[in-house]
């Protein structure tokens, strides 16, 4: 067998495997990245993706991250919550409780495919929030949570999405529709029913309105690493409160070049190497 043929065969063995899993009434789409045969690690990673446009903007990032994990011997599962991405379902019915159950279903699927591994959840933005909600119910048992800029204030998050939505409309049309700006100025705290092309169901809007730091207590069943930018004044306070309850949580500041809701380099396939390296390193800290 030639070196080229061998390399092709090895690549085929470790290529991402598209799968459907979960209960028949709530099927989910995922991509399983098996570990390379010649690597041995005791961990597996479940990626908990962000919501809406943030999930779209980071899709390639998490694809590359999963491939890197697999090459270093860490099997990884990426998936889409019900009604999002390639998973079946109506996005207009999306809500946190259902997505929390989806996360547990993904955890069980990864455990089935990597039965001897310690499972680490890597969540970003609202995906990180869902990781906190899912891990505390006792039905899932990750050994570690890596929370990348978790959403801990639902109203502030919805307001941010709404502002970004209006800014995107301004930038899209050669003659901006000022009605959006007027509505934003008139009711700046109103929760939107659409944000950057993604519907926010009435249930999801109500859940975001009720989402406050006190509603996100961590547990001692796993250790937690929280990654936040240096200018975040709210998440460190939440993490400190968890530490005061003697929860095994650590805060780390991390500045990166990734834009959650926009692509500053639309013609580039590059992803920020600093963020990839930071997330990889978080697995063993």
Short description:
It is built from 10 helices and 10 strands.
Characterization of this structure:
- This protein has 285 residues and is α/β, with parallel strands linked by helices.
- It has 10 helices and 10 strands.
- It folds into 2 domains: 208 residues, Rossmann fold, CATH 3.40.50; 53 residues, no CATH class.
- β7 and β8 form a beta hairpin.
- The longest helix has 19 residues.
Number of strands: 10
The SSE string, one letter per element, is HEEEHHEHEHEHHEEHEHEH
- How are the strands ordered across the major sheet? 1-2-4-3-5-6-9-10
**SS summary, helix count:** 10
Portion of residues in beta strands equals 15-25%
Total discrete domains: 2
Spell out the key features of this protein.
285 residues; alpha/beta; Rossmann fold; two-stranded antiparallel ribbon; disordered N terminus
Helices and strands in order:
Layout: H1 3-14, E1 17-21, E2 28-33, E3 43-48, H2 52-57, H3 59-71, E4 76-79, H4 96-113, E5 118-124, H5 126-135, E6 144-148, H6 154-172, H7 178-186, E7 194-195, E8 198-199, H8 202-210, E9 223-228, H9 235-244, E10 249-253, H10 273-281
Parallel strand pairs: 3-4, 3-5, 5-6, 6-9, 9-10
Antiparallel strand pairs: 1-2, 2-4, 7-8
Helix pairs in contact: 4-5, 6-7, 6-8
